[in-house]
Amino acid sequence: MSELPVIGLAGGIGSGKSLVASQLRQLGCLVCDSDAMSRDILRDRAVRDQLVAWWGSGILDRDGEIDRSRVASIVFARDEERRRLESLIHPLVEARREALFERPPPGTKALVIDAPLLLEAGLGDKCDSIIFVDCPRPIRLARLSAIRGWSAEEVERREAAQWPLDRKRQAADTIVRNDDDPASLRQQVSKALEQVLAEIGRVR
Predict the structure, then answer these.
(1) Judging by beta carbons within 10 Å of its beta carbon (0-12, 13-18, 19+), is residue 17 exposed, middle or buried?
(2) Among candidates 127, 164, 118, 134, which has minimal Cα distance to 11?
(3) Which of 16, 65, 89, 117 is the most exposed place for a label (fewest CB within 10 A)?
(4) What is the structure's pLDDT at 84?
């Protein structure tokens, strides 16, 4: 594993963690997008077959691929099914993350874990620093409605499977506020990265 510092991103659903990850990538960090990895893993034939064995062919779309919305309707309705899915997917994502971080490109400043369940999955222990992306709830709800078509009730249903925001905020080392002002956010993210690198440098 590389000796580069590892930064984890936390925040509410729709807070803008992916935007912060993109900005960190532009600032020279290597980002692991766990959600994108999970989507790719769901295309794996063995994974697809296992999910069909659990929940039936009704979770497949017209092309025979996993329909994530149908899977979501199952796992966010029953905690035991969500945990079963996580027990299958998380180790596969972890293996890909380790492979990605094993050989960072020359000049990489830090490694970034962008994972929806960073703290819930215990990934916070793998991080040297955690950045919490704070975003007002009305902005998050409007964004999720426009981009994903989710209602406030759907957001609440998904958030119920995560730590409360206050708990995530308290677990973070740095807070950046995303009020839909990309320039301001980038300035905050750049400063946060500088602080992390300076602090890790002092410790090491």
Answers:
(1) buried
(2) 134
(3) 65
(4) 96
As a whole number of angstroms, the distance between CA 39 and CA 6 comes to 23
Residue found by looking up tokens 């740095």 in the block: 174
Which tokens belong to 114?
């962008």
Tokens at 7, concatenated: 């930064």
**4: which DSSP letter?**
S
Instruction: Reply yes or no on whether the pLDDT at 202 is more than 80.
Output: no
- CATH code reported for the domain at 6-203: 3.40.50.300
Q: Chain centroid to CA 86: how far?
A: 14
Q: Both tokens of residue 184?
A: 């301001």
What is the residue extent of each domain of the chain? 6-203
- What digits encode the pLDDT tens for the residues 81-95? 999 999 999 999 999
How many whole angstroms separate alpha carbon 136 and alpha carbon 14? 10
Contact 155, 114 (CB under 8 A): no
Q: What are phi and psi of 75, to 5 degrees?
A: -75, -25
